[in-house]
Amino acid sequence: MKKKFNKKQKKALRILLNHKNGVNELLYGGAAGGGKTWLGCSFALYLCLNYPGIRFLIGRARLSILEQTTLNTLYAVLKDWGLNEGTDYNYNGKSHELKLSNGSIIIMKDLFLYPKDPDFDNLGGLEITASFVDESNQVVEKAITVLKTRHRWMLNYYCGINGCNGETSKSKVLERDENNEPIKWKCHQCGNDTEGFIPKMLLSCNPAKNWVYSKFYKPWTEDKLEAFRQFIQATSNDNTKLTKAYKNVLDQLDHMSRKRLRDGDWDNESADALFKMDKIAVLWGRELPCESETHYIAIDPAGTGGDAAEIIVISGSKVVKEWITIPKAKKPSEIIEVVERLQRKWGVDEYGIAYDVDGLGWGLNDAFEYGYQIFNNGTPIENKVFQNLKAELYFKLSQVIEDEELSISAECQTLEIQEELTREMQVIEEVEIDKDGKRKITPKNVIKQTIGRSPNKADVLAYAMRFFLDESDSSYIILD
Ligand SMILES: Nc1ncnc2c1ncn2[C@@H]1O[C@H](COP(=O)(O)OP(=O)(O)OP(=O)(O)O)[C@@H](O)[C@H]1O
Ligand SMILES: [Mg+2]
After folding, report:
1. pLDDT tens per residue across span 25-60
2. Ligand 1 nearest atom to the CA of residue 9, by list position
3. What is the whole-number distance in angstroms between the Cα of residue 72 and the centre of ligand 1?
4. Domain locations in the chain?
5. DSSP letter assigned to residue 6
């Protein structure tokens, strides 16, 4: 079967299959739909089929998302290459390994930074030959640094020159290291002097202002990339196999997302953005240790139109522990039921609940009479320089994110939450201060026009900030 690749994918494969170029890390992508995942799965399969017995790792921030997305593309590539489940390969959902009939293995791995394993000790016992990290911008840099040290399985077993799979054991060894391992040999198959494989990591990404930006994109634009790194920018225009429907989806994105995901624009950021892209990026791929036993609940009830209601549980150390979306909430009772369950689970009394009283929120008044009722246009609590309470809460959220204090637990880092929250956050700006001198944010109707819906996920995080404002200046008196 002849495998077809677009020009950028071919360029990437040439770099990845060349073991003499000194390139260990290749970042491919910088836009949506450029054929990143297909390339990564093809790289994995090509190596595994050509070099029996090797171990290839496919990683992503969350294993659960990897199995919903990247693994499906791997199945599609297997099918495209004429390989059949049962005879040619088997996937074990418990060990998360795909075993090929020639003995090669593709290991699926979770690369999230969990509070319990800050040094990625769980990667410690791994020995792999090569790897592909999909959406690597959602993984912290440390995961990549540790993973890189795990590339040592069968590196000196095959020749590797121009895809040659001549074995060292059948070749004449020219040089050995202090452990008597061959480091240079004359390949019995192609006749070349070879040093075998060098570690090869393929990383894919969408534009993000974190380590992928500072280590790859920025130096690439300045022609200052380290010799062991390379970057290939590939957009949906480079992917000749993309369906029209997918292209339409990219065309219909809001302006900011279109620039970033369709056009591969890494620097598309407003100077007035309330949440900077580099700080939004810090939210993903890691969870901070929870240092507080206290928990609070924030609720953005649906509007009267029956849109989504968002409910979060946040700890006193600002870790979002649970995030529940009720897609089309129509009655306050639907929300109350969930909140009462969360109260029991996390030990939250009514004083620990904050909710917006607009829309279905009015229906929560009786149930959570002692909770914080947030009137968006209410008076600011701590600092009267804000236009209203909502602006104050948003500025507080912005400060907490700027200081990298907020963290979202691994369970809550779903594709939907990541995509929607990022989209919402990148369009919220501080708008011009007018003659009353009060600080304000983009009005809700403008955000709605831009992204086609309310920023419910950002709103609920902002409401949660109610518990982190200093109340010494509060104009409210709370009666027990
Ligand atoms: N070499 C190829 N041969 C056949 N089909 C391909 C190839 N490359 C890409 N495709 C097609 O293009 C689609 C998009 O590719 P892929 O999923 O790899 O893009 P992506 O950059 O990972 O997208 P996303 O940004 O959504 O993660 C694939 O589902 C597949 O149908
Ligand atoms: Mg992909």
Report:
1. 999 999 999 999 999 999 999 999 999 999 999 999
2. 1
3. 11
4. 7-155+197-244, 277-473
5. -
**83-105, pLDDT tens digit by residue?**
999 999 999 999 999 999 999 99
Q: Which CATH class is domain 277-473?
A: alpha beta
In this prediction, residue 478 carries a pLDDT of 45
Return the structure tokens found at 192.
């070349």
Q: Comparing C-alpha atoms, which of 256, 265, 200, 269 is closest to residue 233?
A: 265
Q: What is the rounded (10 degree) CA torsion for 235, 237, 243, 244?
A: 120
Looking at residue 275, its amino acid is F
Which pairing describes strands 97-100 and 105-110: parallel, antiparallel, or unpaired?
Answer: antiparallel
- Class of the 7-155+197-244 domain? alpha beta
pTM of the model: 0.93
Residue matched to tokens 């590196």: 155
Residue 256 pLDDT: 85
| Rounded Cα gap, residues 313 and 320, in angstroms | 6
CB atoms within 5 A of ion ligand 2 belong to 36-37
**Ligand at shortest distance from the CA of 76:** 1
Give yes or no for residue 466 CB within 6 A of ligand 1.
no
Q: What 3-state DSSP class applies to 260?
A: helix
With a 6 Å cutoff on the Cβ, whether 34 touches ligand 1 is yes
